[in-house]
Design a protein that fits this description.
CATH topology of the largest domain in chain B: Rossmann fold
Strand content of chain A: 15-25%
CATH superfamily of the largest domain in chain B: NAD(P)-binding Rossmann-like Domain
Oligomer: heterodimer
Radius of gyration of chain B: 27 Å
Largest sheet of chain B: 8 strands, mixed
Number of domains of chain A: 1
CATH architecture of chain A: Roll
CATH class of chain A: Alpha Beta
Strand content of chain B: 15-25%
Shape of chain B: elongated
Structural class of chain A: alpha+beta
Radius of gyration of chain A: 12 Å
Number of helices of chain A: 2
Chain lengths: 91, 391
């Protein structure tokens, strides 16, 4: 089981939860588990072809999965996934 | 026995002299330039790169300043007399190539050549910045760098308010502020640089009043405008550091592209609700904003397009982290937040640090700055129309 940190813009899709526990052997499976628990996150995370949307960064612990093996990056128990869309608020 | 003036004339006949025009050509080469005036005379400036050794200490200190006697030495004083006597002394000490500058620094200045004026802290400044002087990481040199620094703040809003106040307090010499808005009552829950009696006043004017109130030394440069492709290069050029607190993606991408092109570091923060993000984008040394976020999110995931809530304290926290990074960059101390993204989540009181890598295929910073054209800056598909549609 991994912990997935939910960014503020997605919390309306996770009943306000800031962290979601999700099972899966790799990043893709963990994120699929999130979308199964909270279906409204599906289109925000994944593009039509099943890839991650380009505007969503996902980090396994502190490393961007783009420099690891993307959705196939293995995930271990106790790992933390951070979902991070860009934010522009400043005022 | 000769008179004093005869003695000087005799010495001048024996030493080599050099015209300021010739010295001006030498200043960037391997020549030691020595100022032999009294300490108080040097307060109005020295020749660039000159070392100061008062004539009375010449014999005892010259070896510390010019250890190699074969190094060519140019000596000057106020008008050329004391330097001739000093040149004579150095020749007697075995220096092989010693020349006295004719007319001294007086003639040098008359000719319009450059003079470096050492910063002299006033008693008021010594008191004001005394806590910085006590820190070895900042000290006199660091404070001098702060006083010489030019920092541009994009926005005098939530993030810009604390940043502007603390950078002014720290003695940053020139602070530019870009903001086209006026103070609104709903701003005052977080924009602490403004005040209730300044509602309706342009934010740049209101910010200037508060900054000048805390430190009258600061030169505030106001840009009451919105940063866009037509003015960005003109506004940002010449600044040492830019503090990004803008509230929309088009400007963030535009800023990124322009600062990569001009190689100006950006201390970037963003806030939403109870969450903040912070990073330093140092062009070509670390990733740029496009390396981190190759494309902006669609409008429904980019709530900055519309009105959203934010905890009033949050921009204070994030803005002060920005101000801290600015001071580190200016002073050249510590480890700047380059290649790292710091996330602050106020409800859980957690800080998370993520690695940010340079993207070898980044459309902007994978190329040399001169290849980034005006037409490319800030470009991505139809975003402004998208935001406008989302309201």
């Amino acid at each position: 089981m991994a912990t997935v940190r939910i960014p503020p813009v997605l919390r309306s899709s996770t009943n306000g939860e800031r962290e979601v526990d999700a099972a899966g052997d790799d990043v893709g499976a963990v994120l699929r588990s999130v979308t199964e628990q909270h279906p409204a996150t599906e289109t925000q995370l994944f593009a039509d072809g099943g890839d991650l949307n380009r505007y969503v960064n996902v980090y396994l612990n502190d490393e961007d999965v783009r420099v690891l093996d993307g959705l196939e990056t293995p995930v271990g128990t106790g790992d933390v996934l951070v979902i991070l869309p860009a934010m522009a608020g400043g005022s | 026995m000769p008179s004093g003036s005869e003695f000087i004339r005799q010495i001048k006949d024996q030493v080599q002299e050099i015209d300021p025009a010739e010295v001006n050509e030498l200043t960037h080469e391997g020549v030691a330039i020595v100022d032999v005036r009294e300490t108080e005379e040097t307060e109005s400036g020295l020749l660039p790169g000159a070392k100061h050794v008062p004539r009375g200490y010449l014999e005892s200190r010259i070896e510390g300043v010019v250890p190699d006697r074969s190094t060519p030495v140019v000596i000057y004083c106020a008008s050329g007399t004391r330097s001739a006597l000093a040149a004579h002394t150095l020749t007697e000490l075995g220096y092989e190539d010693v020349r006295s500058m004719t007319g001294g620094i007086t003639l040098w200045k008359d000719r319009g050549y450059k003079v470096d004026v050492p910063r002299k802290f006033t008693p008021e400044q010594r008191e004001r910045y005394s806590r910085h002087f006590l820190l070895p990481e900042i000290g006199v040199e660091g404070q001098q760098r702060l006083l010489d620094a030019k920092v541009l703040l994009l926005g005098a809003g939530g993030l810009g308010s604390p940043t502007a106040l603390y950078l002014a307090a720290a003695g940053v010499g020139q602070i530019g502020i870009v903001d086209d808005d006026t103070v609104d009552l709903s701003n005052l829950q977080r924009q602490v640089i403004h005040t209730t009696d300044r509602i309706g006043v342009p934010k740049v004017d209101s910010a200037e009043i508060s900054m000048k109130a805390i430190n009258p030394d600061v030169d505030v440069v106001k840009y009451e405008t919105r940063l866009d492709a037509s003015n960005i290069m003109e506004i940002i050029e010449g600044y040492d550091v830019i503090v990004d607190g803008v509230d929309n993606f088009p400007t963030r991408y535009l800023l990124n592209d322009a600062t990569v092109r001009l190689q100006i570091p950006v201390v970037s923060a963003s806030i939403l609700g109870f969450d903040g993000q912070l990073s330093v984008f140092q062009p070509y040394e670390g990733p740029c904003y496009r390396c981190l976020y190759p494309v902006p999110p669609p409008a429904e995931l980019a709530p900055s397009c519309g009105a959203n809530g934010v905890l009033g304290v949050l921009p204070g926290t994030m803005g002060l982290l920005q101000a801290t990074e600015v001071i580190k960059l200016v002073v050249g101390t510590g480890e700047p937040l380059v290649g790292r993204l710091l996330l602050y989540e106020a409800l859980g009181a957690t800080f998370t640090e993520l690695k940010v890598r340079r993207d070898p295929e980044c459309p902007v910073c994978s190329r040399p700055p001169e290849e980034i054209s005006d037409d490319e800056m800030g470009v991505f598909p139809d975003y402004e129309a998208f935001c406008a549609a989302a309201g």
